[in-house]
Predict the structure.
Amino acid sequence: MVTVSTTLSAHEIGSKCIEAVQRIFPDFQPGIELESEEFPNHRDAIEISQEGIATDLFLELLSEQRILDTALDAMSLNMGTTSTADSTQYTTSFLISRQAALMGKVAFVLESERTVGGVINVSMESPDLTLWIQEATWHPGRRDVPRSVGDELSMRADGAVTEWFDKKGRATIHPDD
């Protein structure tokens, strides 16, 4: 299950915020009527959310932008599990820049970052979520450099990259090959 949410602050134009989400997740229909969009408005910040969102366009954009490895890392950075007596569910959540989304682009945001224009919060839950993320972000380059959730090539929690080459240009991955 995929849940998408965003918070509309009092100073933001609600229709633009919703449009940004819909440019990545077109079936996002929050079902709320926004009050006047004129400044100054007197509404409090409100969170809008919808469950059961399709990820087709989101995944297509990741491929078009050629950020599938980044997506693998960003989407699995907060991977966790929830267990019940009969099953284990894998869960994850990640943030996308609403400003980039308004232009039809996906830009992942770390939880420690403050970003202009707000964020889209995406939560996912499934018994086979790890496998799904790996398959959804697969590309032909993985034949040469296999990747998986949480592997030694994953970006660090602070967003720092794992270097594939040292300062002299020698490969640091698969040095035995």
